[in-house]
Design brief:
The chain is α+β, with helices and mostly antiparallel strands. The chain contains 4 helices and 20 strands. The strands form 4 sheets. The protein has a 6-stranded antiparallel barrel. The mean pLDDT is 83.
Length: 366
């Protein structure tokens, strides 16, 4: 029994030794590396840059009052369409006491002058009819009477303007009625009934009654990095993607590039503007955030491969061309001349044929 046990242990030991040698032999053999193969293809390449910004009307008109006072009525709301000349709001004039007192005093004086002039003219008229004075003296008296009458009317109108902001004769052109100066859409009405408003003057811009814009004339306003600004020019086509309308893209044309850069988060950027072409069926609101994609360079029907397959060494570029795949992969180092890149694929101008296969990344065997 002991003899059998001894043989059994020796057999186990022999198996362990053989297994160890086999394992070490397998580990010492060189591993076959398998690479992904990438096929060259004929395709179109575009190199683009993206500018971020927002959509806004080309011109936003600020409607301001021509007089100071208090908002008596507001007839329109933000979001409504409006035509030139339509009334947005009405301002009630609050007269200044000094001006009011001066105007009332002027009316009283003009009334006194008018009554005196009326009496004098009545006397002159009788004398002229009796042929006791010349026509020249009569005409002078008539002119004096008309001037006094006109002065009285002017004083009354001035008082009425100070009190109410209008006169009966100019009611159709009332400055108390705030009207739109263009056809468009009301973007904002920042005032409410009862708010005080002031007219613009040397020291103040005045109160904005409403903001009106033509929403059929929209532009994209954004910023582009200084590394790209030298490669764009006015008239370039732009593809616009609006954040709120992600399923739609709009065509635009670059029409302005700022001659001066502005530092933004440590980067020097230049403002650009592009005119937007949008169908009438789509509603675009002012202030929508948007991205503008500008094509910087385009190459059509060129041989291209993934840029990751290119090996860069100094000023030269190489690829590893597949020459055989059985029983194992074999590659040949091939010098190539490359062109433009879109960031994913690169154009191969020389050294590679269409549908050729090149070495890519190593395949993970795990």
């Amino acid at each position: 029994m002991k003899k059998f046990f001894r043989f059994f242990m020796l057999a186990i030991l022999a198996l362990i030794l053989i297994g160890t040698f086999v394992f070490l032999y397998q580990k010492s053999k060189p591993q076959t590396v398998v690479y992904e193969t990438l096929k060259a293809e004929v395709t179109d390449l575009e190199k683009t840059t993206v500018a971020t910004g927002k959509v806004e009307p080309r011109d936003e008109i600020l409607i301001k009052p021509q007089i100071s006072g208090i908002i008596e009525e507001v007839y329109k709301e933000a979001g409504q369409s409006i035509k030139q000349g339509e009334v947005i709001a009405k301002v009630k004039v609050i007269p200044e006491l000094g001006q009011l007192n001066s105007a009332e005093s002027r009316v009283r004086l003009s009334e006194i002058n008018f009554k005196q002039s009326e009496t004098d003219f009545s006397r002159i008229k009788k004398l002229f009819e009796s042929k006791l004075i010349s026509r020249e003296e009569f005409e002078k008296g008539e002119i004096a009477f008309k001037q006094a009458r006109e002065e009285r009317q002017t004083a009354k109108d001035n008082l009425q303007i100070i009190k109410e902001g209008i006169t009966k004769n100019s009611a159709a052109f009332s400055s108390t009625l705030i009207r739109s100066t263009i056809n468009g859409l009301i973007l904002d009405i920042p005032v409410k009934k009862g708010n005080s408003v002031i007219m613009s003057n040397t020291f103040n811009d005045g109160t904005t009654i409403a903001t009106v814009a033509d929403m059929n004339d929209l532009i994209f306003r954004g910023n582009i990095d200084e590394t790209e600004v030298g490669r764009i020019h006015e008239g370039m086509p732009v593809k616009l993607t609006i954040g709120a309308l992600q399923k739609l893209t709009f065509n635009a044309v670059l029409e302005y590039i700022s001659p001066k850069g502005v530092e933004n988060n440590g980067a020097n950027q230049f403002e650009i503007k592009a005119a937007i072409s949008a169908p009438d069926s789509v509603t675009i609101r002012a202030g929508y955030s948007a991205n503008a994609e500008i094509v910087l360079q385009r190459a059509k029907k060129v041989i291209a491969i993934p840029e990751s397959a290119i090996e860069f060494k100094g000023d030269s570029t190489f690829v590893y061309l597949l020459t055989d795949s059985v029983p194992e992969q074999k590659f040949k180092r091939q010098a190539v001349t490359i062109g433009m890149s879109d960031g994913i694929k690169v154009e191969v101008k020389k050294g590679l044929s269409a549908k050729a296969k090149v070495r890519g990344a190593e395949v993970d065997k795990k």
